[in-house]
Prior knowledge:
The chain is an alpha+beta fold. It has helices at residues 42-59, 65-73, 78-85; strands spanning 10-14, 19-22, 34-37. A three-stranded antiparallel β-sheet has the order 2-1-3, with helices on one face. The relative contact order is 0.18.
Amino acid sequence: xxxxxxxxxxxxxxxxxxxxxxxxxxxxxxxxxxxxxxxxxxxxxxxxxxxxxxxxxxxxxxxxxxxxxxxxxxxxxxxxxxxxxxxxxxxxxxxxxxxxxxxxxxxxxxxxxxx
Length: 115
C-alpha cells in the first residue's frame, strides 16, 4: 500500500545537485539540504509545496511568532516530523483496501449514465 506520508514520492534536488525521491519527513534531512522540488512541471512543484505547507501547518503548527522563527531557522529533523505526521498517516493511503486519500465516502448514490 502506498502512503503519501510514509513513502518516498516527492522528487527533489539537493544542494550538491543530486536528484532523489523522498518522503515528506525527509524534507529537512540528509547531509546535503533540499534546495528545490523537482516535479516534471512547474505547476506540480506548486502543488507539492502547498501539500507540504498544509501538512506541516496541521501537524506541527507554531505556538507563536517566536516559535515560528525558531522552526524556520532550525527546521525539525526527520524523526520529529515522522512523529508529528504519524497521527495523520491513515488519511493518506493512496491505494489498498478501505478509504483512500481524497475519496469522499459520504456522497449520495448517483445514477450512472453514458457520456
